[in-house]
Amino acid sequence: MSIAAIDEGAATGELAALFADIRATLGVGVVNLIWRHLATIEGALPWAWSAVRPLYVDGVIEAEAERLRARMRLLDLPRVPSEVLTSVGLDAAAMSGVKTVIATYDRSNTMNLLALSSLLASLDGDVALGGQASGGRTGGVEGALPRLLNESDVAPETWALVLRLNMLGERDEGRVLASMYRHLAHWPGVLALAWTLLAPADADGSLGGAIADNLAGARARARSLAAMLKPSSAAHLPPAERAAARKAITLFVDHPIGKMVTICRMLRLAIR
């Protein structure tokens, strides 16, 4: 389930500058795992980021993400009452941290799904011409995220719950661990709530159906966004590295990003 990635704190020089630019451009306090994984492939991160960055800067991706969220098929999860949140150990400060984590991934995953899907569509020549895209930027998610936890940082039962959650809505044995669950492991009670909310929908197939529908909608729109990418964006990465980067992006779009777009949105609405 582990995948190679550069820790944000370990980045130096040009890589640190790239990470800072990604955080600032997306308006979030984290560099998502896909970008940190691409940094392990020679030349892949600057290649991919330079190709899609203009769509973020112009506000196109942000506006498209808002439209996608408005059209998404979401399951009607019960809203969690404040007394339930208190009973699992969430005071005001903890609740603020939880909201920041979920909001950060709700924002960044949706934007990254559209941008990276458009890059894949461009590479495949699967471009829908004639579509119009308008831009518009708003404020990002304020607040720093807590440290990204590893297995050694938490109790065994907490890590086991992280892994169980990662299997929800998954069709590929969960081989890429979604970072949001690692951030939420600071509050094991929230992980338990997430499991309680999502597991029934996973068991009856409705969660998987919603994920598939929303992923299909994002891919359809990405075909139009692909027309806005520069045709030469893939020209500066050698074939072997380009193939590795494309494989990595496909994996993330199909699995962790593709499923977490729906899951993050549903949890954000339920845990308020």
Quaternary assembly: single chain
Beta-strand proportion: under 5%
Determine the N-to-C terminus distance.
30 Å
Which outline best applies? globular
Proportion of residues in helical segments = 55-70%
Structural class by SSE content = mainly alpha
Report the total helices. Answer: 12
Can you summarize the main beta sheet? none
Structural topology:
Blueprint: H1 13-26, H2 33-38, H3 44-57, H4 60-71, H5 82-87, H6 92-124, H7 156-167, H8 179-184, H9 188-203, H10 206-225, H11 239-254, H12 256-270
Architecture overview:
The model has no long low-confidence stretch (mean pLDDT 92). This protein has helices spanning 13-26, 33-38, 44-57, 60-71, 82-87, 92-124, 156-167, 179-184, 188-203, 206-225, 239-254, 256-270. The chain has 272 residues and is mostly helical. The chain has one domain (8-270).
Summarize this structure briefly.
This protein has helices at 13-26, 33-38, 44-57, 60-71, 82-87, 92-124, 156-167, 179-184, 188-203, 206-225, 239-254, 256-270. By secondary structure, it is mostly helical.
List keywords for this structure.
12 helices; globular; mainly alpha; 272 residues; single chain; 62% helix
